[in-house]
Amino acid sequence: MIVARGLTKTYGPKTAVDHLSFTVEPGRVTGFLGPNGAGKSTTMRMILGLDRPTSGSVTVNGRSYAASPAPLREVGALLEARALHPGRSARDHLRWLAASNGIPRTRIDAVLDLVGLEAVADQRVGRFSLGMGQRLGIAVALLGEPPVVVLDEPVNGLDPEGIRWVRTLARELAGQGRTVLVSSHLMSEMALTADHLIVVGRGRMLADCSMADFITDHASSYVRVRSPRMGDAEALLRDNGLDVDRVDDELRVRGRNAAEIGELLGGAGLYVHELSLVQSSLEDAFMTLTADSVEYATHSTETAGAVR
Amino acid sequence: MSTTTASAAPARPGAGSSPTLDVVSLDPNRHVPGVRRPGFLQVLHAEWVKFWTVRSTRWSLGLLFLLGAGLTTLVCWAAAADLAAGDTGEVPAAFLTWGLLFSQLTALALGTLVVTNEYGTGMIRATVTAVPRRGRVVAAKAVVLAGVLFVAGVVTAVAGYFGGNWFLEREGVGMALSDDGVMRALLGNGLYLAGLGLFALATGLLIRHTAAAVTVGMALVLVVGNVAYALPGTWGEWVAKLLPGNAGGSVAQVAPFNGGAVLAPWTGFGVFVAEVAALMLVAVLVFRRRDA
């Protein structure tokens, strides 16, 4: 279990993490979601004792990471940036890590086998591809069979098969009762992996809820209606208790399906020029949610909330 | 599909749920599964593995030996006749560890790299996540580095002594191992290089960039050390004598070269140790406070 309370980190005038409080529960995959620069990595670095919080605290299994006598056996972490010497072999990298925490040597072969790197274990990691590097990072994270696993952008650089593998692995680890925190800037990825979501933007908490709640709350769908007599159509639908928004030359209707709305309008003798179901994806929901907090916005694109 | 990619999938047919991920009892308050809590020896072991599994270590130590023993032998061979004739104005004893002038550079480089290669590659993050007690990390690195440099320094000096002295002996100006200061200088080589390595390690911890740290270390020990002798008056002489390279170097020489006043060997080494210790202390304090 990871518990953050009022966690804050400032770098000079810039606030990277702003009073985050959350709990990462065991037995489920918690997705840590936010655009680039939202403070995900900084938060993870504070969980791991790499960075000192400016204020607030974060504990793992009830105490600070640094207080753990054998942290690799307690928390397994894959850090976003590579944290290994390119001249060292994968096996040697695991060897010193195992030595430092008194982890039996047999685990080295076990994790190499688990991530599929046994064939290249004795090669210098500098020659590894991005995906192989990620696999090694995951091997490092699992080396000490930790009850808590923290993965920062684990699917970066992985091929589709690797992505699916990480997804399955994360779910499997959670299924074993471990606490799993996975960060990503891709909503679509989280939708497939996480049971619970923590969404941050500009260091602030935007959402902390179950995946199911997030979908109900944010991934809305509506029926688009166009009619030559927009005013009448709008009034009719409102009179029938439907939730109607008029946006430019269309009506966005929620509460009934397209067929029912069509029948309603037809029954009143109103022509309908368009009647279509519009579903906003989770990705869009996420974009809308974080639109105000995107650190490095590109202004050339269409508004982030556009529907598909 | 290749076997490698097939084995990467966690749910291999027949393997059931991965055998390597046994469901351990996951009591949230279970901090360390089963095994005894690792101590300093484990950290030391980890640093030992790290130290020997990068190429720069072998390169540095190889060069240290080559420069230290090789140059001593070469210079003694070249200077033996002049030394015997008394043309150089130097005592032959000063030449017995001549190569130290250059081998100390490799000790500086190695000491720096032990830390800065971790900062350069991001390894430092892995290091402090594995061992969050940062003082312990530095202590383990220091023990490994100083231990190895001590042995390398002594071995190099002994080889240099035998190589160089053979030529001096031929001209009748050689020294026996039992002669005053010879054994002390051979051991002193190990001590001085170990100290210099720690000095560089501390510099590396403070500066964190290989090139900058190596440059500062070398400039301080060699350039400033020599330039300081040009300072006027008694205070200038004292400054020069107290600078780390000059203070620490005298224990590693059978006899000093002319032109530079140095402290007595053990006095100088005492000063050097104090300087290295002070710098290490500052480095550890800074390292503990700083974000990794």
CATH class of the largest domain in chain A: Alpha Beta
Q: Average pLDDT across residues of chain A?
A: 89
If classified by CATH, what would the architecture of the largest domain in chain A be?
Answer: 3-Layer(aba) Sandwich
Overall, the morphology of chain B is globular
Structural domain count of chain A: 2
* Lateral arrangement of strands in the main beta sheet of chain A: 5-6-7-3-8-9
Helix fraction of chain A by DSSP (H/I, runs of at least 4)? 25-40%
Helices and strands in order:
The complex is a heterodimer of chains A (308) and B (292).
Chain A: E1 2-11, E2 14-24, E3 29-33, H1 40-47, E4 55-60, H2 71-74, E5 75-78, H3 90-100, H4 106-115, H5 130-142, E6 148-152, H6 160-175, E7 179-184, H7 187-193, E8 196-201, E9 204-210, H8 211-218, E10 221-226, H9 230-239, E11 243-247, E12 250-254, H10 258-267, E13 274-279, H11 282-290
Parallel strand pairs in A: 3-7, 3-8, 5-6, 6-7
Antiparallel strand pairs in A: 1-2, 1-4, 8-9, 10-12, 10-13, 11-12
Helix pairs in contact in A: 3-4, 4-5
Chain B: H1 3-8, H2 40-52, H3 55-85, H4 100-121, H5 123-130, H6 134-170, H7 182-207, H8 210-227, H9 233-242, H10 244-249, H11 265-289
Helix pairs in contact in B: 2-6, 3-4, 3-6, 4-5, 4-6, 4-7, 4-8, 6-7, 7-8, 7-11
Task: Describe the protein in words.
The complex is a heterodimer of chains A (308) and B (292). With 308 residues, chain A is an alpha/beta fold. Chain A is built from eleven helices and 13 strands. Chain A has two domains: 2-217, P-loop containing nucleotide triphosphate hydrolases (Rossmann fold), CATH 3.40.50.300; 221-279, UreE, C-terminal domain (Alpha-Beta Plaits), CATH 3.30.70.790. In chain A, 34% of the residues lie in helices and 27% in strands. Chain A starts with a strand and ends in an 18-residue tail after the last helix. The model of chain A is unreliable at 300-308 (pLDDT under 50). With 292 residues, chain B is mostly helical. Chain B contains eleven helices and no strands. The longest helix of chain B has 37 residues, at 134-170. Chains A and B meet through α2, α3, α4, α5 and α6 of A and α1, α2, α4 and α5 of B.
